[in-house]
TrEMBL record:
EC top class named in words: transferase
PANTHER family, per the entry: 4-HYDROXYBENZOATE SOLANESYLTRANSFERASE (PTHR43448:SF7), PROTOHEME IX FARNESYLTRANSFERASE, MITOCHONDRIAL (PTHR43448)
Name of this protein: Protoheme IX farnesyltransferase
Protein's gene: ctaB
Species assigned in the record: Devosia enhydra
GO cellular component: plasma membrane
CDD domains: PT_UbiA_Cox10 (cd13957)
EC number assigned by the record: 2.5.1.141
Pathway: Porphyrin-containing compound metabolism; heme O biosynthesis; heme O from protoheme: step 1/1
Annotated GO MF terms: protoheme IX farnesyltransferase activity
Amino acid sequence: MAYLDDSRDIASVATSGRVEDYFSLLKPRVMSLVIFTAFVGMLLAPGGINPVLGTIAILCIALGAGGSAALNMWYDADIDRVMSRTLNRPIPSGRVEPSEALSFGLILSVLSVVTLGLATNWFAAAFLAFTIFFYAVVYTMWLKRSTPQNIVIGGAAGAFPPMVGWAVVTGGVSIESTLLFLIIFLWTPPHFWALALYKQGDYGAAGVPMLPNVAGERATRLQILLYSVVLVATTLVPPMIGFGGWLYTAVAAVSGASFLLLAWRLYRAPAEVEMKRIARKLFTFSLSYLALIFLALITDHLLSLVGA
């Protein structure tokens, strides 16, 4: 009996590990950002949506993001094996077969698009399908390995979710949803180039032409600074069109100033050790920065509803 109990325990552990491996294929940290920004788009869109349909829509967008992430990991398994930060992913570590990841990604992608179309509207579903295609094919299979501008153009895939969320409610796009897109789109290059600066060796070993490996550290730091200036300026546009109140304006100004200060310090860093330290700090801060911007928009929106 004790032997049988031990066998069941071992099987249970193996099964739970398998589930965890498949969950890892979805890139849960990236998915959480997609869910959050899509939710912001849905919440800020005029008209509102039934909570049940809204929940289904968010689930579909999450599954679409996870499906495209699985397709990304399937295609990138060869370079994931030589990069320290991706070496332990399910495919290069041998815990999931490439064919299984491919099937998993395709099933989730198709399921998410069809369900979203049936539950809400087919414009939003088509937008989600385009987002999945852009990330899995345009970015992963083409841009990532062919140009140092990979993250600039490919970053559009990560910027589409709030527009998809907006389309779920309205059936279309608008100036406001385009602004949400632009904020994420302009945030992506300084965010990932900061990572590339202190993970430069990984990208070089994998043969991925990230900007620091192709144009050099100095040019990359200048590009980070320039994109940061344009990003912060763009975050100050929403209040000009009535899309953000005093709270958002204050948060965007203060956090934007902090972002610019870090970008400037990175550009002026005199030594490689200091440069990598500030690059890591900018990368970490950029995550909080984007969350602050979108949380401020939500809070301003809720305050306006209470005031009304």
